[in-house]
Amino acid sequence: MTSPALDVALSYHQAWTGKDFEKAMTYVADDIVCHAPSGRLEGAEAFRGFMGPFTQILTGSSLLAAFGDETTALLMYDTATIPVASAPGAEMLTVREGKIVELRIIFDRTPFDAARAAAAGA
């Protein structure tokens, strides 16, 4: 069973994990507020600058769980990237009028820190 927010969240997720970031951005409101591990981002262009580079190193993704209601959706997934084979993440998305207006992203930075340290010879 799906819901309005879950439908948008899944469409957005399928687009960015399917390497169609431009399509993913069609689900993002111009005034999106994104809460990421690196801090708060405001506006679609700031969000693009954060998420776009990640999609470039993405090599795969597995959706683990998805729940939603009229305005909120929660997705949990595992991603594979060029530097890291497994990096779990979760997103809580708030949707209004078919657009993501707020997004909270949680992901495990440990695998990326380890990959950077290994690449630096530490």
Secondary structure tally: strands: 6
- What's the main sheet like? 6 strands, mixed
Going across the biggest sheet, name each strand in turn: 2-1-6-5-4-3
N to C succession of SSEs: HHEEHEEEEH
**SS element count, helices:** 4
The chain-level structural class is: alpha+beta
Portion of residues within helices: 25-40%
Kindly estimate the percentage of residues that lie in beta strands according to DSSP.
35-45%
Uncertain residue segments: none
| Shape, per Cα inertia axes | globular
Mean pLDDT, to the nearest integer, reads 94
**How far is it from the N-terminal to the C-terminal residue, by CA?**
48 Å
**Spatial extent as radius of gyration:** 14 Å
Summarize the structure in short.
The protein has 122 residues and is of the alpha+beta class. The protein contains 4 helices and 6 strands, in the order ααββαββββα. The mean pLDDT is 94.
Structure description:
The structure is a single chain. The protein has 122 residues and is α+β, with helices and mostly antiparallel strands. Helices cover 35% and strands 43% of the residues. Strands 2-1-6-5-4-3 form a 6-stranded mixed beta sheet, with helices on one face. Strand 4 (72-81) and strand 5 (87-96) form a beta hairpin. It is globular, with a radius of gyration of 14 Å.
